[in-house]
Amino acid sequence: MATGDERQQLVIERAREVLPGDGRVLAVYLSGSYGTGEADRFSDVDVHLVVTDESVGWFEEHWDDVLRELAGPTVFADKLPGLIGGLGITADWLHVDLIVHPLKSFDRLQYDGVRVLFDRDGTLFPDGDIAQQGGRPSEPYWPAGPVNLFFYFLGNLVTVLGRDERVVANQGVGAVRDQLIALMLAERGVRRTGGAKRLNALLSAEQRAALEAIPAAGSEPADIIKANQYICREFIRRGTALAEVTGETWPTGFVDATLTHLRTHFTVDFA
After folding, report:
1. Are residues 10 and 110 in the same domain?
2. CA 218 to CA 220: how far, in whole Å?
3. 3 state DSSP class of 268
4. Residue 67 covered by a domain
5. What angle do CA 147, 56, 114 make, to 5 degrees?
6. At CA 29, angle to CA 28 and CA 31, rounded to 5?
7. Cα separations (Å) of 10 from 13, 15, 113, 171, 175?
8. How many domains does the chain have?
9. Is the pTM of the predicted complex or chain greater than 0.70?
């Protein structure tokens, strides 16, 4: 097992020693490279806490203080969107993430590789560490959030190109592509929660080829539209098949409204 460097190990030892002393902390664990045993000297340290529901507000306000208690002084710290917690960078460019999970919404089954540092009652991780499956397929599941986000982001192409916001439109290609990746992971039954710099092992060769075939999108509207058309067709083909396999309902009304919206404004079909 790779162990990274001494700076990373010091953060981990601090997390193991200091955090259990706070009664509001129910569990402490590592995800990402340290969760999967793939850490090297370039790795981030991804520290996760499960906390009592009553203490969530305090951690929302003070997550950065907790992070600095583990990592030392930071030259940059910022909240991660949509999460409780954020990232910190030290003067020697050690990257530490601190993510806080309320007990009521915690689900250990979402992880593919976890190293448990502390479990107060032994109930959140009853089997200890969670071994990495390495992208090994399991039962397909329905990714409701990414499906809805895909068509929301896609529909906004009308707005950004209507305003001639070409840079924003180019960024949008990445946003819809990311939802396609989430759909592909669901096809394989792979749940990804960390290790953002590693993706190859989680996808099949066919999926990777489909992603690599996305047309390049620069700043020309025609190229941006072409890339979105390709991604949309892939998403609908895969998504409708996955809905059938999982017994879920394909959001026909939302999809049709989005496709009509796009066709009306661009006079081309996206599906």
Report:
1. yes
2. 6
3. coil
4. yes
5. 60
6. 150
7. 5, 9, 21, 37, 36
8. 2
9. no
